[in-house]
């Protein structure tokens, strides 16, 4: 043996102990060159490399030492730790095991063994090791903190919270314990408390990038997205190669609809950590929102190749397949997610939404119910459940459920979509709140396109109508003629079609010829559509969808035009600060109700609703027998949609039917469960099921209008009136009896009846409504007088005068445009 080696080794140890790692390393390397199996040199140099975060070389040196002396507990301990620190957890396990066998009284060895087992997802094993450490040292704060983190990974949050508190009781100066407790509080959705704990951790350890990142996540959950970004930036400044930081920042950028930036951050995270399946999934969700569905699915598939049991990837893939209308594949994806995680509330809710779309209502209700029972605070699905129950007239406990919905709404919770609320409540303040919650959460104003530069006044004002319903749909059935007769000397008319019909129907063909420009934009992102509208210098953007199915409110959140208008498709306020006007009339929105609308009201003189005068009944003469109607009975009718029916409406109609002995009620079949349940409901109220006749759908609108002639009186629903259906009945010569309420949807029929000069058919109390229904059914002369008046007014009153309506609407557009050109803010407008 070289006589100099002991001296050199002594010098190296002194340098190491004195913190002079550079000198120690140089000496130890010379020792090893002379004696490749020098155990102290290999061991100490391995420790130095580990302290320098050169874990790969540290592990190599310590492995050489372990081969020389496999039963040295210290060497095994340090080798295991180095391997774990370089990310080789699986390779470190045998050395952790050997370390605790050789030194079972070493709590640090048990702690590190537990950390590795937890990293490998073997959390139950990790708990055993942490308990060993705590048994050896009951005041070992780090072990208690780590145990808390592992319990959190197992979803045992309350136990995790207790452990985190024990760790802090042992040591209030352990920054990691504050962070761990914060993460548990975040998992319990106690975000404000979580942030307080992260702040305490950062006071103790300002360079704790994990605490910064977790604080960002909590702020993200509170929708404080800009503050969250600042926290992620702090984390990434401290550790630029922190994949989780890049991934979390990407998720927040997604929420801010900064999709390109989000993808760039996801890609950075994936460069650092290619097997990061959560980020592959989040990247897929961002590509979904950009309408890049094939790329989104490829990302989900990549995530699932890395972790086939990642239920969020299965669920997100289902959502994208839903957008592609591949419903069988959608259900399969949700089922995969739910097999993996049967208590996955969002998965149950999403599956319910697809079954709802497929009109498999019974199965959908089961799924919604599961989602709500698993997570009573889940976003939106309680509202979906109650709305769907109303569609099939399943009213058991519905009053209590509606009461619960209203309480949650008043607490500003995301509990029901605005449209679904309208048939459940007549409170316009509640309707506004629901819209504001939905808009603020899903479609808050986005300034990323900047302000719209003001253009000089053009020869023609450019009006763009945005709709997913340029097809055989109620909105287009009403508006088709309007587009054709707009004054082309003053206006240039654009259509932004947000959804292609499954098949090219006749209405879609007609509409393509009705506009000056018809743009199919289904596959383009909201931001791109808004930019397209700006590039076309659209002056007034009219949203014909609002908060209805397939709407694209996000387009207007970017501000597609300097003037944005809510009209016709959605009967209420958007609750958005970027929608300037709502088209209405004085019946719909009396001046004292303006407070319930975020928009300024553009009041048209007669009614807000247009009709296509070319849409008329066919010349066919139908017999009662063709539709199962008794020959000598009085026929009440109501062809409203299923969700507009409720227990109070049936109570009222039953009283009417029982008072008019020889009468029947003719209603739309809607769906099979509706038919079954509503029949039973009438029977419970003493009405023989034979007196309720169900009308099946007819393909021809003209024939549908013609068959109205078989009815004597249309009984309207409340609080959601007949809208297009009121137009249909009046056009066919059938009087409509309505009960006016407080909210927009409960005042539409009254608006239409006033516009045709029939205000006597608008009642303000249930008793008045029932009394007049019974009188008209019992007194043929009184009914005939009403019908004759209606027949005369159809020809002279403004309701069916489409050219007059077009002029009134255009006058409103001109006033809006004049105010904008004069640099005046939107204000309530009245068209005389």
Structure, described:
This protein is α/β, with parallel strands linked by helices and 832 residues long. The strands form two sheets. It has an eight-stranded parallel β-sheet, covered by helices on one side. The protein has a six-stranded parallel β-sheet with strand order 10-9-8-11-12-13, sandwiched between helices. Strand 2 (491-497), helix 28 (506-512) and strand 3 form a beta-alpha-beta unit. Helix 19 runs antiparallel to helix 20, helix 19 packs parallel to helix 21 (345-357) and helix 36 packs across helix 37 (780-796). The longest helix is centred in the last third of the chain and has 20 residues, at 802-821.
Question: What's a concise summary of this model?
Answer:
This protein has 832 residues and is of the alpha/beta class.
Q: What structural keywords apply?
A:
alpha/beta, single chain, 832 residues, elongated, eight-stranded parallel β-sheet
Task: Please outline the helices and strands.
Elements lengths: L3 H14 L3 H14 L4 H13 L3 H14 L4 H13 L3 H14 L4 H13 L3 H14 L4 H13 L3 H14 L4 H13 L3 H14 L4 H13 L3 H14 L4 H13 L3 H14 L4 H13 L3 H14 L4 H13 L3 H14 L4 H13 L3 H14 L6 H11 L6 H13 L7 H4 L6 H15 L18 E7 L6 H12 L5 E7 L8 H7 L4 E4 L5 H10 L4 E4 L9 H5 L5 E4 L14 E4 L15 E4 L30 E5 L8 H13 L3 E6 L3 H13 L7 E4 L5 H7 L5 E3 L8 H8 L4 E4 L8 H8 L6 E2 L2 H13 L1 H17 L5 H20 L7 E2 L2
Helix pairs in contact: 1-2, 1-3, 2-3, 3-4, 3-5, 4-5, 5-6, 5-7, 6-7, 7-8, 7-9, 8-9, 9-10, 9-11, 10-11, 11-12, 11-13, 12-13, 13-14, 13-15, 14-15, 15-16, 15-17, 16-17, 17-18, 17-19, 18-19, 19-20, 19-21, 20-21, 21-22, 22-23, 23-24, 31-36, 36-37
């Amino acid at each position: 043996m070289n006589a100099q080696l002991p001296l050199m080794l002594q010098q190296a140890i002194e340098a190491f102990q004195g913190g002079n790692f550079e000198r120690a390393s140089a000496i130890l390397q010379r020792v090893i060159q002379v004696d490749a199996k020098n155990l102290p040199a290999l061991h100490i140099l391995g420790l130095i490399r580990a302290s320098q975060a050169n874990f790969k070389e540290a592990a190599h040196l310590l492995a050489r030492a372990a081969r020389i002396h496999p039963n040295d507990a210290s060497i095994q301990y340090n080798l295991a730790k180095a391997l774990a620190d370089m990310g080789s957890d699986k390779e470190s396990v045998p050395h952790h095991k050997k370390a605790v066998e050789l030194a079972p009284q070493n709590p640090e060895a048990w702690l590190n063994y537990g950390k590795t087992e937890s990293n490998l997802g073997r959390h139950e094993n990790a708990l055993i090791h942490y308990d060993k450490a705590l048994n050896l040292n009951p005041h070992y704060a780090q072990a208690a903190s780590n145990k808390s983190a592992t319990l959190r990974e197992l979803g045992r949050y309350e136990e995790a919270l207790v452990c985190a508190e024990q760790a802090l009781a042992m040591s209030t100066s352990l920054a990691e314990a504050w962070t761990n407790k914060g993460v548990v509080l975040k998992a319990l959705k106690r975000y404000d408390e979580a942030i307080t704990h992260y702040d305490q951790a950062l006071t103790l350890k300002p360079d704790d990038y994990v605490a910064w990142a977790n604080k960002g996540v909590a702020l993200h959950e509170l929708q404080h997205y800009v503050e969250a970004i600042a926290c992620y930036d702090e984390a990434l400044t401290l550790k630029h190669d922190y994949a989780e930081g890049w991934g979390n920042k990407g998720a927040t950028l997604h929420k801010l609809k900064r999709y390109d930036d989000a993808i760039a951050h996801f890609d950075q995270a994936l460069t650092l950590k290619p097997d990061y399946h959560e980020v592959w999934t989040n990247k897929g969700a961002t590509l979904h929102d950009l309408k890049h569905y094939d790329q989104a699915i490829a990302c989900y598939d990549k995530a699932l190749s890395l972790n086939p049991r990642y239920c969020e990837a299965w669920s997100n893939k289902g959502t994208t397949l839903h957008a592609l209308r591949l419903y069988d594949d959608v259900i399969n994806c949700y089922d995969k997610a739910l097999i993996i995680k049967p208590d996955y509330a969002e998965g149950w809710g999403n599956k319910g939404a697809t079954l709802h779309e497929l009109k498999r209502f019974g199965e959908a209700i089961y799924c919604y119910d599961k989602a709500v029972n698993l997570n009573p605070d889940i976003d939106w699905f309680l509202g979906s459940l109650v709305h769907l129950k109303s569609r099939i007239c399943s009213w058991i406990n519905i009053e209590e459920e509606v009461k619960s919905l209203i309480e949650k709404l008043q607490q500003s919770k995301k509990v029901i979509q605005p449209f679904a609320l309208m048939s459940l409540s007549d409170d316009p303040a509640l309707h506004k709140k629901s819209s504001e919650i939905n808009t603020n959460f899903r479609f808050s104003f986005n300034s990323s396109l900047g302000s719209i530069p003001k253009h000089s006044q053009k020869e023609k004002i450019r009006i763009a109508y945005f709709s997913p319903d340029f097809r055989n749909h109620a909105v287009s059935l009403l508006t088709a003629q309007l587009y054709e007769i707009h004054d082309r000397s003053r206006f240039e008319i654009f259509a932004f079609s947000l959804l292609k019909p499954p098949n090219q129907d006749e209405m879609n063909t007609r509409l393509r010829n009705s506009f000056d420009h018809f743009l199919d934009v289904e596959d383009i992102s909201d931001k791109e559509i808004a930019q397209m509208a700006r590039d076309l210098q659209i002056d007034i953007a009219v949203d014909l969808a609002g908060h209805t199915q397939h709407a694209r409110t996000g387009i207007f959140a970017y501000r597609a035009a300097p003037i944005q208008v809510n009209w016709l498709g959605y009967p209420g306020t958007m609750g958005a600060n970027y929608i300037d006007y709502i088209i209405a009339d004085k019946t719909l929105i009396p001046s004292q109700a303006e407070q319930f609308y975020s928009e300024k009201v553009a009041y048209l003189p007669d009614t807000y609703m247009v009709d296509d005068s070319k849409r008329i009944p066919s010349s066919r003469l139908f017999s009662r027998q063709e539709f199962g109607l008794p020959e000598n009975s009085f026929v009440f009718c109501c062809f409203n949609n299923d969700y507009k029916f409720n227990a109070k409406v049936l109570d009222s109609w039953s009283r009417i039917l029982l008072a008019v002995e020889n009468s029947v009620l003719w209603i739309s079949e809607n769906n099979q469960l509706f038919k079954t349940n509503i029949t039973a409901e009438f029977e419970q109220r003493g009405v023989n099921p034979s007196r309720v006749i169900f009308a099946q759908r007819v393909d021809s609108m003209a024939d549908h209008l013609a068959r109205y002639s078989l009815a004597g009186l249309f009984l309207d629903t409340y609080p959601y009136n007949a809208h297009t259906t009121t137009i249909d009945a009046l056009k066919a010569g059938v009087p409509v009896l309505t009960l006016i309420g407080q909210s927009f949807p409960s005042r539409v029929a009254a608006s239409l009846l006033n516009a045709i000069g029939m205000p006597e058919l608008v009642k303000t109390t249930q008793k008045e409504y029932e009394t007049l229904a019974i009188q008209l059914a019992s007194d043929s002369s009184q009914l005939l007088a009403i019908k004759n008046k209606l027949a005369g007014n159809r020809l002279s009153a403004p309701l069916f005068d489409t050219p007059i309506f077009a002029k009134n609407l255009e006058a409103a557009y001109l006033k809006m445009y004049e105010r904008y050109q004069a640099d005046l803010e939107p204000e309530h407008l009245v068209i005389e």
